[in-house]
Write a structure and sequence with these properties.
Helix content is 40%, strand content 16%. The protein is an alpha/beta fold. A 7-stranded mixed beta sheet has the order 2-10-9-8-5-3-4, with helices on both faces. It binds pyridoxal-5'-phosphate. Pyridoxal-5'-phosphate is lined by residues 12, 63-65, 90, 136, 140, 166, 168-169, 189, 192. Pyridoxal-5'-phosphate binds at residues 12, 63-65, 90, 136, 140, 166, 168-169, 189, 192.
């Protein structure tokens, strides 16, 4: 590659296609113009399809973390509790954010690499009342996908309990049906399987969430869901939105809908299978619990084989691939191969054959 571009194989930010990068260079428009309202309305329609929801989709200038804070502030009343399902670095951080906003939090903690089951949630809901169950769809640190549909079936039985789902690294890479699965809020950011540049976040939000928000006095300002909804009804945002990123999202959603969302899920699942095959053939394991392995990112279990992940990353850099070396307390014991976004199986093959060369070299 002549321009020395390092292709991103890390689990976010991911590679963004040139066409999508270029879409950001359109002339700016004022966000109180009709041109902006048209753009916003166009995005709404496509985002609803992408989330499989009839409700609204918030569009926020922030990363996903901002919407974590918004979810906690707008959905958990001060005298009530939230149930956080914790089993990796990201689910842990969301629980911290709820606490940092003064919310009362109970956690169901599983070992890193394990999934949460609907039975665990059912037990907890029988014992105590919760304003919200907060769960990470796809735990990026461990490569585990939680059974959101089954958890949704459990939460459905509790009128006062909202189901809040972080699908930052799952959305548009693995199945998620917001309305059918009883999800009240599904939040995501742009730079994972959506394959957009970072800096914009999205959330499907149910009427139940807005009803809850109205019962909470101090929702904060930037992520006040009632204000955001008031603007959304006018195809607008309360403060200045990331217009360039919205141009990019507009074009990217056209590509995604042309590919077909189910086809996109299937492409990701096929790349997961290729990655597992590579791992097992080369003497590695897969860190995630069997049956819950992520379609968008594989945490390769390096504990038996024990390759030096720094050397691996250096070797791959010469092939113009930027690799991950594992996250948090399982760094090195695992390393992650992201197979998400607009990555095609042909590029993944190139990555895996580079890795084979390193392992066998
Ligand atoms: C990356 C990630 C986040 C954090 O999102 P930002 O956009 O970086 O704020 C949250 N949750 C999961 C599961 C992630 O993968």
């Amino acid at each position: 590659m002549s321009d020395n571009h390092q292709r991103l194989v890390i689990p976010g930010p991911v590679e963004v296609r040139k066409e999508i990068l270029d879409a950001q260079t359109e002339w700016m428009i004022g966000h109180r113009s009709t041109a902006f309202a048209d753009l916003f309305a166009r995005l709404q329609g496509k985002l609803r399809q992408a989330f499989f929801t009839q409700s609204r989709v918030f569009v926020q200038g922030s990363s996903g973390t901002g919407l974590w804070e918004g979810a906690s502030r707008n959905c958990i009343r001060d005298d009530k509790k939230a149930l956080h399902l914790v089993g990796g670095a990201f689910s842990e951080r969301w629980a911290e954010i709820s606490k940092a906003n003064g919310k009362q939090v109970d956690v169901i903690e599983v070992d890193w690499g394990m999934a949460h089951t609907p039975e665990m949630v059912a037990d907890a809901l029988k014992k105590s009342a919760y304003d919200a169950v907060c769960v990470v769809h796809n735990e990026t640190s461990t490569g585990v996908t939680n059974p959101i549909k089954a958890i949704g079936e459990v939460v459905r039985g509790y009128e006062d309990t909202l189901l809040l789902v972080d699908t930052v690294s799952g959305f548009l890479g693995t199945e998620l049906r917001v309305d059918d699965w009883n999800v009240d809020m599904a939040l995501t950011s742009s730079q994972k399987a959506f394959a957009l540049p970072p800096g914009i976040a999205f959330a499907a939000v149910s009427d139940r969430v807005l009803a809850r928000a109205k019962q909470i006095q101090y929702r904060g300002y930037y992520f006040d869901f009632i204000e955001i909804e008031d603007s959304l009804l006018k195809n607008n945002t309360p403060s200045t939105p990331p217009v360039a990123l919205m141009y990019a999202a507009d074009v990217q959603l056209d590509s995604i809908l042309a590919e077909g969302i189910e086809n996109r899920w299937a492409r990701h699942a096929a790349m997961r299978d290729m990655t597992h095959q590579w791992a097992f053939t080369n003497g590695f394991g897969v860190f995630a619990q069997k049956g819950y392995e992520s379609a968008t990112v594989t945490a390769v279990d390096n504990r038996q084989k024990g390759i030096n992940v720094d050397d691996m990353a250096k070797f791959m850099k010469k092939k113009f691939f930027e690799m991950d070396k594992g996250y948090g307390k399982i760094k090195g014991k695992t390393f992650r191969i992201a197979h998400m976004g607009d990555m095609q199986p042909t590029m993944l093959e190139e990555v895996l054959s580079g890795l084979t060369e390193f392992v066998q070299g």
